[in-house]
Amino acid sequence: MLALKKVSKWFGGLPALQDVSFDIPRGRITALIGPNGAGKSTLINCVSGVDRAGAGEILLEDQAIQTRPAHNIAALGVARTFQNLKLFARLSVLDNVLTGLTVRAERSFALSMLRLPALRNQERQLRLKALEALDDFGLAERAHWPAAALSYGERKRVEMARAFVGDPRLVLLDEPVAGLNTDETAQIARHIRRQRNAGYTMLLVEHDMELVMDVADQVVVLDSGRCIACGKPEEVRSNPLVLEAYLGRMEATA
Ligand code: ADP
Ligand code: MG
């Protein structure tokens, strides 16, 4: 679905990503792990167009997207969540999820301006779709609440509903369980597995190794902006480089 070819990114001369290459296979969950500052969020930002890669190629089904603006990449079907939630606090939960649909419906929206009944019909369909997505993520009864009134765990799920509502080709999840308790984490894990079973392709940035080992089909390890390992979860877990660079350090700080 996505191929990264020697992607690099510098911030003021300091490398955040260095020659990162790996593939994200269709219909699978690829987990991206690595210590704090490894470049995981930077990579998601480059793929989604929030940041621009300094060098290298990012191919979405063979189409180069590394120079495209974020709205364009979103319209091509790349959806994401943010490490630090980005919801419209005063908008309703339903309206927040609707914003995930309008990024893909841009063109048909413009066209339907010419035919009002069709627009109303389309609006109804979009709202129905957003409500279905909320229901999928266990939030149907929160649809008309302002996003700010929800718990942190619920807001994480609203972001997921917004990411999935437009049937994206690729979903980038940046630490979806960070700050959640055990029950909430298990709940998100169930949602992630269900979406995978429904055929979605995901890149999961995550610190929770239990979750990664549980749901990932493939694990990519970043350390100081470099890809140091890539493989099946059990292979990566026993890779000495990874143990040293990542798990060793985790244990040392635990
Ligand atoms: P991770 O998500 O793996 O914790 P990040 O991608 O957030 O890591 O950061 C990778 C490196 O890039 C870090 O050294 C960080 O300080 C730096 N960095 C990230 N974003 C910026 C930015 N906007 N400006 C300058 N440096 C940045
Ligand atoms: Mg990060």
CATH superfamily (homologous) name of the domain at 80-167 = P-loop containing nucleotide triphosphate hydrolases
- Corresponding CATH architecture of the domain at 80-167: 3-Layer(aba) Sandwich
Category by helix and strand content: alpha/beta
Classified by CATH, the class of the domain at 80-167 is Alpha Beta
Outline the structure in words.
The chain has 254 residues and is of the alpha/beta class. It has helices at residues 40-48, 70-75, 93-112, 116-136, 152-164, 182-197, 209-215, 233-237, 240-253, and strands spanning 2-11, 14-24, 29-33, 55-60, 63-64, 78-80, 170-174, 202-205, 218-223, 226-231. Among the domains are: 30-78, no CATH class; 80-167, 3-Layer(aba) Sandwich (Rossmann fold), CATH 3.40.50. Helices cover 44% and strands 23% of the residues. The strands form two sheets. The protein has a six-stranded mixed sheet with strand order 6-7-8-3-9-10, sandwiched between helices. The model has no long low-confidence stretch (mean pLDDT 90). The protein binds adenosine-5'-diphosphate (ADP) and magnesium ion. Adenosine-5'-diphosphate binds at residues 11, 16, 34, 36-42.
